[in-house]
Each structure stands twice: as C-alpha cells, then as structure tokens.
Fold:
Amino acid sequence: QVQLVESGGGLVQPGGSLRLSCVVSGLRFNLYTMAWFRQVPGKALEFLGYHDYRDRRVKVADSVRGRFTISRDNVKNTAFLEMNSLKTEDTAVYSCAASGRSRPTSSSDYAYWGQGTQVTVSS
Structure:
C-alpha cells in the first residue's frame, strides 16, 4: 500500500518560513519524481514544482521561484518543500505527489498523493 504523509504545516506570520515534509512508503522512492501542489478553496490546484528522479532536476513554478525550494532524501524516502518569505496569499492546503514519469508538471501525471497539510500565513 502506497502512502504519502505530509507534515510541517501550520500557522506562520508573513515573512516567516516553513518546511514541509512528505514521507513516502510502499513504492521505490528513488524511482519516482516528487512534486508539491497547493490548493485554495474555490481555486484550481496549483503546481509548485518537482524534484525529478531521473536527472535530479528541480523545477519550481514561476509564482514561487526564489522563495520555495524542493529537495529529497532518497535514504529517508522523504521529500521536502522549503518555503521562505511567506505571504498571506500562500495560505492553502499543500500536498505532495509521486509520479513514475520524468519532469511531469500536470497533476494528471501523478498517481499517488498525500492527504495534504494546511499552511496559514497570517499576522
């Protein structure tokens, strides 16, 4: 059974930082591209970026580039989303996802998803 479990969400003040983790089990982690998405109620799912399993390329969406980074630990089967200089508009549910494809940017390319973790940026 494949499981992706996010943690690290919570309430943070504008300008603050958070590090989200996604622990994966039930699949060969080093053979999957790991990505992060977020969603605000009433809005479309937003792709934030991925860490490719094949060439280790990291792609970050323009909307968060320079503030968010993605990394992974293939020993601990964990993916990370480091978020800095957080803004109120970053408030959303953040989810990790796993894909057996290289460089996938569409949510439909991801077969496995975590349950999501809430991030609230507010003073």
Observations:
- The chain has a mean pLDDT of 97.
